[in-house]
Amino acid sequence: EHVPVVVVGAGPAGLTVGNILRAASVDCVVLETETRQFVEQRPRAGVIEDAVVRGLQERGLADGLLAAAQRQTACEFRFDGRSHPFPYTELTGRHHWVYPQPLLVTDLVRTYADVREGDIRFGVSDVQVHDTDTDRPAVSYRCPTTGERRLIRCDFVAGCDGARGVSRSALPQERTRIARHDYGIGWLALLAEAPPTSDRVLFGVHPDGFAGQMPRSPEVTRYYLQCAPGDGPGDWPDDRVWAELHRRLAAADAPPLVEGPLLEKRVLDMHDYVVEPMASGRLFLAGEAAHLTAPIAAKGMNLALHDAFLLGDALAARLVEGDDAGLDGYADACLRRVWDYQEFSQWLSDVYHGAASGDPFRAGTTLARLRRLFTSPAAAAAFAEQYLGLAEYA
Ligand code: FAD
Q1: How many domains are contained in the chain?
Q2: What is the distance in A from the centroid of ligand 1 to the CA of 314?
Q3: Among 42, 174, 195, 328, which residue is least crowded by beta carbons within 10 Å?
Q4: Is the link from the previous residue into 237 a cis peptide, with omega within 30 of 0?
Q5: Pocket of ligand 1 (CB under 6 A)
Q6: pLDDT band for position 119 (50/70/90)?
């Protein structure tokens, strides 16, 4: 079997690359270890940048999102027992969108498989990437029904298999550098079957630790609670979760949180990494296969989609018109944005976590930084630009 492109992984990045290729009438196979139902239900991200929505729209992939997503115009910090709204649309004219990742993935699978008649193979196992530094790379896998091993030869491999994937290990070890940053804290990630208390994203900066609220839908709300890095869900019975959320997100001028059953409760190991180079020979990584950013600034899926737009377009240009420029510049173009977002996540992490650091000096400077967002138009504009994301990186 031979196809021009094998895409490893059916997350937001891989599905977007596959959709762009199919729209250009380029054949590809998407390989995914999980089932269709599993990837369509996996709850994760929800906040999407304007520029990403536009990128999806330009590629015919935003119909579901535009029909159902909530358009956000402000976020809100809570500190000193009060709410401090940050009206970013008023400052920039730009928005954030809330559209849960499972809905986006469902739309992307449907468009790829059912509308654009793309080949997607769910439930495969033991995926291996071969010969990517030659002109005839290949990907092999075990078929879920027969257990038989299959090999697909191709011209290019798109490694979109996320943080736990295999394609990254096909980069030549002697030329690969993994830069990693550990935050030294934990975040308890929660999904509550309860309406959000505010339709804005809330950031609670509190001496007991950070707390966040991200609306997902009128019925479901994501919450985060800073916790000790070694904690497990067992350390956080529901009544402790709600007591801490109420305390850390308290604002005398806002209604209290609405409690509900907790559908998800897990501790995230808060770290970032960047793999360089993101490409070697005929292997191109995109999304979390190449870089992870802790959900501090809600950037992970946005970065994955920015990569996927560049990679899909570059592969289509190469395979349809013989134009190599996009692929040649791909890794550098992605990495400029990736490092910028990593820096912003670190900056924002200091704002979120400084008050609870136990160091009164750091707590003081953090609060000064936070207050500056509400007193200095220049500081507010800089924050809004990074929080909302730039459309282009020159
Ligand atoms: P993934 O979504 O991980 O997709 C990779 C796919 O590859 C998966 O389907 C996996 O099953 C498959 N796979 C793995 N190994 C193999 C293999 N060997 N062979 C074949 N397939 C394989 N981002 C935001 O932008 N905004 C947010 O608000 C936000 N909130 C988040 C909240 C939480 C709790 C978490 C955990 C993440 C959040 N993120 C957020 C990050 C976002 O979910 C990820 O950045 C995004 O899913 C990355 O997309 P991806 O396509 O690169 O990888």
Answers
A1: 1
A2: 22
A3: 174
A4: no
A5: 8-14, 31-34, 39, 44-47, 101, 127, 160-162, 164-166, 189, 287-288, 295, 298-302, 304
A6: very high
